[in-house]
Write a structure and sequence with these properties.
Blueprint lengths: L1 E7 L1 E5 L2 E5 L5 E2 L6 E9 L8 E9 L6 E3 L4 E3 L1 E6 L13 E9 L9 E8 L8 E6 L4
Parallel strand pairs: 4-12
Antiparallel strand pairs: 1-5, 2-3, 5-10, 6-9, 6-11, 7-8, 11-12
Length: 140
């Protein structure tokens, strides 16, 4: 399975396509602003018609999970979901099947001059390409 991830200002899915606003950035002001993550899963033919579970974790430059106060103490910022793609009857055997997800996030309290990464895990596996990294600017 392959995963493409893009940071953006906002995203949505319609008719199986991603619509992205303000996409492709890697530097962020350290102010609480909404952000989004656009995901494209390229599912191999043999991985279709199988349930898959994904988890996206926000980590800092030290590889530690970023945490926010949830009212019950510090909680890691993680997003997760399940998906299954079917094999369309008119698709030739061996073809990959796309599945897209748009995640719009509430403002998060990012620290200035810090590097963060959203890291993807699918079915308890990860890959070095399944991450997208960004840096926050220093405060003026």
């Amino acid at each position: 399975m392959k995963v493409n991830m893009m940071l953006c200002d906002a995203a949505q899915v319609a008719d199986g396509k991603l619509y992205i606003l303000g996409g492709g950035w890697s530097i962020l002001v350290p102010k609480p602003i909404p952000t989004a993550i656009a995901l494209r899963f390229e599912v191999d033919w043999m991985e279709a018609d199988i349930d898959h579970h994904w988890r996206l974790c926000l980590i800092d430059a030290d590889g530690e999970p970023m945490k926010i106060d949830s009212g019950e103490g510090p909680t890691p910022i993680e997003l997760e979901g399940d998906f299954r793609v079917g094999r369309p009857n008119d698709l030739p055997p061996g073809a990959s099947i796309d599945m897209v997800v748009a995640i719009n996030l509430s403002p998060l309290p990012f620290l200035p001059s810090t590097r963060y990464s959203w890291v993807m895990n699918i079915d308890d596996q990860t890959h070095e390409d399944w991450a997208v990294t960004f840096t926050t600017r220093a405060l003026d």
